[in-house]
Amino acid sequence: MKDKKLAIITDCIHMYDKDGNVVTENHIFRKQIQAIAAMFSETLICCPFDTFSNNKVASVYRQNNIRFVSLPNVGGSSIKDKLKLISTISVWLRAFKKADKFADIVYQRFPNNVNIPGGFYFFIKEKMYLLLIPEHGRIIKESLLLTGFKNGF
Fold it and tell me: What is the distance, to the nearest Å, from the Cα of residue 38 to the centroid of all Cα atoms in its chain?
């Protein structure tokens, strides 16, 4: 698959550290994504970004074949939070379009709210996609836990 490009849609929050590096507090996620990205020529991650603070313990992405699309960090349990989420749908749809144009394969991490409309978008577009439910605490390398995909490799 080294000749293929991968786009990843996720709700995992990322930040830019003081040196401008992309980081996340989800260390297992970063390890999984770096292992998966190593199998592709290029990887584009569409994800929410938040503000970095020095009290956060974050891991840096070190691979040069990974790029990011910064999306708003929304969500929560209040009605106001849900309305804010609705107001960002157009931003997420543009990210889906960018991922569709960029990638041969789209990896949608579930469960998360942003991938519900993404699932419909890529199904309608007949894009090859992976719907994966990662096992927590396990790094996915050569064999992916595949729960569904369209159009095959």
Answer: 15
Tens digits of residue pLDDT in 65-82: 999 999 988 877 888 887
121, pLDDT greater than 50? yes
Report the alpha-carbon distance of residue 144 to residue 20 in Å, rounded.
Answer: 31
Q: Which two tokens stand for residue 115?
A: 């991938």
Which two structure tokens, joined as six digits, stand for 138? 């396990």
Structure tokens at 97: 């379009």
**pLDDT per position as a tens digit, 91-118:** 989 999 999 999 988 888 765 666 777 7
Fold of the domain built from segment(s) 5-149: Rossmann fold (3.40.50)
Query: Pairing between strand 146-149 and 129-132?
Result: antiparallel
pTM of the model: 0.80
One DSSP character per residue, 44-89 reads: EEEEEE----TT---EEP--TTEEEEEEE----SSHHHHHHHHHTH
Q: What is the DSSP letter of 40?
A: S
